Amino acid sequence: MINSIFSNSFKKSIGIFCLLFFIGGVAFAGDKSGNNADTDLSKKISVVADSLVSDPRENNAEFIGNVKVVQGETTITSDRLKIYFSKKTADTSGADEGSLEKIIATGNVKIKFDNRVAVSEKAVYITMDKILILTGPNASISDKDNSISGEKITLYRNEGKIKVEGGLKNRVKAVILPGNAGLN
């Protein structure tokens, strides 16, 4: 009986996880304007990690150890990747049960998306607002010719804008090739 409960709970969690990625529009995919024009919902999502801890009661699942997530042209690698999904309550207006709320990647985070590479110690993606927040002493986003770094980088995908903040030890640094549109 314990085995069947665990198996059903585990299967439900994995199913919910995969479904959430599709419903959420895949956290880091999409074009620069925030429209998911490049996201094909039929593309499979591949997740590889050393272990998975799923807690449906707390509405989260965490992949731990050498995590790699791939969907289409988007790749996320990190030491850990935790997803949070909503649970519909009387107080929740407009949020569907099981919809993806947030993804947090920690430890040696590297995200390849939109011909860019983001590197940080921690990355938080808030799906509803399409905001990516990179933090750590050497957080950076670069493309072929341009780069920007700071201790906190906030990429507002819907608005196409970026905010970079320095810290106590590191100031904001940017390298921009003249004639290019930049990182936005």
Task: Report how far apart the termini are.
Answer: 53 Å
Shape, principal axes of CA atoms: globular
Name given to the CATH architecture? Sandwich
In the CATH scheme, the class would be Mainly Beta
Kindly report the name of the CATH homologous superfamily.
Lipopolysaccharide (LPS) transport protein A like domain
Query: What percentage of amino acids are in beta strands?
Result: over 45%
Q: Any idea how many domains?
A: 1
Individual helix count: 1
- What composes the largest sheet? 10 strands, antiparallel
Rounded mean pLDDT is 77
CA radius of gyration is 17 Å
- How much helix, percentage-wise, in residues? 10-25%
Low-confidence stretches: 1-39, 89-95
Quaternary form: single chain
Give the key terms.
ten-stranded antiparallel sheet; lipopolysaccharide transport protein A fold; 12% helix; 184 residues; mainly beta; single chain; 47% strand
Structure in words:
It is a single chain. The chain is mainly beta and 184 residues long. The chain has a single domain (2-33, 44-175), classed as Lipopolysaccharide (LPS) transport protein A like domain (lipopolysaccharide transport protein A fold, Sandwich). It has one helix and ten strands. A hairpin with a 4-residue loop joins strand 6 (116-126) and strand 7. The protein starts with a helix and ends in a 9-residue tail after the last strand. The model is unreliable at 1-39 and 89-95 (pLDDT under 50).
